[in-house]
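A reminder before we start the practical. When you read a complex entry, don't treat the lines as separate problems. The point of joint prediction is that each chain is placed relative to the others, so the output describes one connected object in space. Small molecules and nucleic acid strands, if listed, are placed in the same frame. In the example below there are two entries. Take a minute to note the order of the lines before looking further.
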Amino acid sequence: MTRKLTSITLGLAVLVACSLFMTYQTYGNLDFAIALRGKKIVAFILVGIACSFSTISFQTLSQNKLLTPNILGIDSFYVLIQTLSIFVFGSQSLSKATSLWDFLLTITLTMSLSTYLSFILLKKFKRNLFLFLMIGMILGTFFNNVSNFMQVILDPNEYDHLQGKLFASFSNVKPDHLTIAAILIAIICLFLWHLAPQLDVLHLGNDHAINLGIDLRRLQLMTLFAITALVGISTALVGPTSFLGFIVANIAYQLMKTYRHQSLFLAGSLIAILLLILGEFLVEHIFSFNTTLNVIIEFTGGCYFIGQILYERNGNKR
Amino acid sequence: MTKKIAGIIFLVILIVSSIFIGLVDLPIFELGTWSSRQNLVLLSSRLPRTLSLVIAGASVSVSGLVMQNLMQNKFVSPNTAGTMDSAKLGIVFVMIFLPNAPLLMRTTVAFGFAFLGTCLFLLISRYLPSKNTILIPLVGIMFGNIIGSIATFFAYQHQLLQNMASWLQGNFSVVMRGNYELLYLSIPLFIIIYLFAYQFTIMAAGQEMAINLGISYQKMRLVGIGIIALSSSIVLVSVGNIPFLGIIVPNLVSLKFGDQMKNNLPLTAYFGASFLLICDMIGRIIIAPYEISVSLIVGVLGSICFIGLLLKESRRYS
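Here is the predicted structure of the whole assembly.
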């Protein structure tokens, strides 16, 4: 009962935050503000949902509440693609006509990388997920190296363009991107929602899950594919948002106090949207655009991360 | 014995070829008859470059080895434990607040940050379950991301991102007489590590064991972190970040020669230096007369080695 109450409260909070965000300081131009900010809100909702679904299922998969999917190196791959495209085609290539194709291409590339990685997981590391994560991380470092190499030789003006693309930016989301992303995210999230009961069982541990009749490898593979696709799409939409998932998932566990993934997904998404709106509000009105949402998320997420480790330690002591 | 001699000859060949590869032709057999320009190239560019490659290669691999002993984990290195990111934060700090600071000052500040960051991570890592060897480096990377995001936060506000990227890229082409001498500090550090090698070897067996065997564990650990932080920040400030080296070289050496550190230290230093020399020469040859930065080459070769290493490790357990 309390769980339902928490969800309803969260939902109401999101509604209030949305309407406040839409109407705060509009200087009488309500229509204009709604057109401009509505786009952002849609982006927040999409990214929030993608983020919470992917992180929560990733943490169940890796049986660890400290890891986030960005360890797989998808963010770094995105940075590499962007750097490469500016490096090869120059910033002129970022005109409006090509941006949709750019977006689709980025999604396709990240998805194919993730499919490939999941395929390797299935073939090579039969049950050792951690090894797989480590390899993802190494690849991430490798991608970072390559992009770093190119970023240093870029012309500073072009680098400015790149920088604009690399930081999570909800203000220059294109409407047609939003539609495509919305459709894809909806499909994948429905898929994960459908897998949720199996994830609930997986929460008991790999061995128990196998004993209870879960096809572990198949589940791992499918979930991992969904996770990477979600992260890829959300990264292609707004750039890397790495620590958001961590905060969201952990708050969701604490608030909901349940292992049921469907409730966790729901609460997580609402929390994510709430946090994003709050963060963007801070960026716009407190920091007056002097920083980016990404940095704020990463910083608070980081503090929360360290706090969480210390907290769990104290919990174990008792 | 013959192996030792062969090894030394190999290193000498590498050093000599590193000195004589380059745009300005230095005819090796007409040593006495060079023009003053050729002498200048030798003394102020080639020789410093080669020396710094040897020292940096050795000290990065050795600090990786020490760190792996201190944390009892084969997969940590200054790159995966927040040391490098903390040093990076220090450099950003210097760039913003003391823009005209001399190199020594930059190194000192970077060292301070690196030291504190590594201590913090050691503190955190004690709260993690130590059984899972891959979790610690993964958390270390996330910890590094947090510190890195703080650095990015300030760099972004001061338009220093590209500048920072070029600082951090491992690159030996800018090494000149007058700006690399700080690296010589690594040599006494190496001697100190060698003197304490037995202690570090025992510390790899765990805190209780080390204390039982009469080692003042806390003090030694501070010494160890101090050395690692100092040598990492020296390398970072004078030549930039060199990925993977600190993990691969010690691991390959201990796979082949065991874990006794007094034996391994010179070997680790030797292989680190040779590996870096080879990578740098590859980078200089491939697109001559231009150069590919050494960190990219190390990144490519290193990630392949690293993944191979992991796979081998996993096969041993399964």
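Discuss with your neighbour: The radius of gyration of chain A is 20 Å. What might explain this?
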